[in-house]
Amino acid sequence: MRGFHSCAGFRLGLAIGLLAVTVPLAAQQPAAVDPLPWQPDYAAAVAAAQAEHRHMVVMLAAADDEPCRILEEQRLTDPLIRESLADMVWVRVLDDAERERELGSSEHPTLAFVNPFTGSVIHRVPGEKTVELLAREIVHARRAIGLALPPALEPVAARMFALDGPRAEALLEAGDTDGLQALLAEAANDDSRQTNYLVAQVTLPAGRLPDDIRFLAGTDCLVGVDTSLEFQADPLVAARPPDMAATCAEYPLPESGLVLIPFGRTGAAEGSVRITAPGCRLLTDTIRFEPPAPGSAVQVRRYEVRSLAEAEAARLSGRVLAPDGTPATAAIVRIDDWYDTAGEGAAAPLPAAVRTDADGRFTFPRVSPGRWLVRAEFPGGECEQFVSLAPDGETSCTLRLTAVTTVGLRWALQTREMAQDLAGEGVQTGEAYLSVASSRLALSKGMRIRTGDYGDIMMAQTPLADDSLPEEMQQALAALPAGTPVWYLFDCAYTEDFVPISGLHREVRPFDTILVVRDGAPLPDQDWSIIGPILPQALTLSRERGNYFQLARGEPVRQGDVFTMRSAMGNRFAKIEVTSVTIVTPASQ
């Protein structure tokens, strides 16, 4: 009986199968799916998006490419995905290398979420994804744009990792490495996460404080990138040396010594760490984040900062040559982020800087082994060069200056917050030849700024087009010879009512006689914060209220001028004097 029923079942199935063959083909096909809402071309998509104030989703594709076909026919047609992108303008770019360069991806397929007014890419999704992963990427894109999530995406967002910021801060303050690792564990299992994480525990030698430590982390913490070509028509930044604003960030070290560093997954699969401290051995590390998830998405590293032993110290010597090849006498040479230990009576560890002798030679007798950026400065010239120092040995280098416009400065910086004395306890002195091409200087380092930090001193050079400056100032600038150095304080500290309280104040007192920032009543200790560029209304408020700090933005830099100032990098005061102005133009060369 069992065999009979099995045979009958087989015959019944076969009959149904044969019957199905006789049904017209049209009756078997699923209901027609609405075609995807592609715009006819990129220009039409931009026009539609601008007219309707919508963002664009751009598919970069190649003909006869199977992953592209799957993305278009199986993923983008899914109801969840279509609903998630319904308020955007769709356009497909097929085999267009120029458009791919413009949108920053040659991988097929790639979805790029684009601002139609600026052309900037807000989020990219490379490769063919599952519907779930694609939906998660759309969540990231909408959040980056600032768009609300449609109802269909809310359950997707709930399945994604989201860092509990307040909880993470509490664990960092408590120095709870295990708790922080547990908090991040869920991220390792979310393959749609945008970041990997490094939990770094730093221990310090006796006598060193967290504020002494400079902790850099990113894709590159030393070389940086040359951004001058992006702005070659802009006199503010043209021809400046490479900086690290796009490759790393500086992280403050709390008392607990615990730091959390996010590494974006859109870039390289490696990260780097660089830790420097006065008189201590340089620490560098490379972190590799291996796919797939969980892989090594969350890593814990422990770094011990230790004092530099005499037996392992390196020695750097060399020579500085002027642009014409002659020895550069009395040039300033400095090593970025290397500090001499504080000597007797010193306010704080001093940045490593020396002057060359009559033959242009210099020596640093004691430096940590490792790779450093060495900078030479001279009236009308500068040079930056990376030098690797081996332990317990001597390295020699030749620094050949490039002709650039420079401004010579000397200063005295009060390192104690709100103390207005500019002589005696807490005062650190320095000098520099600031390249106008670099235009940003931190007095406490004596070095141009290479990260995204705020600058105490900023300069530009004419011609300078700035509509925020008063009309009379713009006219005065237009009358100056090309290449004239101009004060251009861009970072500023404001009180709550937008009154600027950092900047320059022109002095009639000779530099050496200034012992205090202000004669008479001291400046008030006001609540303030750095909120970005100096606003036109702030300049007006400063003049109307008789603010102590004259924000000398757009005024020519003149040799012999003396200023007192409030630092934009901290609640500290300083005095500066312009010791030289050396203008280098193509005609002068």
How would you describe this protein?
This protein has 589 residues and is α+β, with helices and mostly antiparallel strands. It folds into 4 domains: 117 residues, 3-Layer(aba) Sandwich (Glutaredoxin); 140 residues, Immunoglobulins (Immunoglobulin-like); 92 residues, Carboxypeptidase-like, regulatory domain (Immunoglobulin-like); 185 residues, no CATH class. The chain is 19% helix and 31% strand. The strands form 8 sheets. It has a 5-stranded antiparallel sheet with strand order 14-13-16-17-19, with no helix packed on it. Helix 8 packs antiparallel against helix 9. The longest helix has 21 residues. The protein is globular and about 80 Å long. The termini are far apart. The N terminus is likely disordered.
**Strands in their spatial order, largest beta sheet:** 14-13-16-17-19
* Portion of residues within helices: 10-25%
Which stretches of 5+ consecutive residues score pLDDT under 50? 1-32, 231-238
Task: Give the oligomeric state.
Answer: single chain
User: How many beta-strand elements?
Assistant: 30
Task: List its traits.
Glutaredoxin; disordered N terminus; 30 strands; 589 residues; Immunoglobulin-like; five-stranded antiparallel β-sheet; alpha+beta; 11 helices
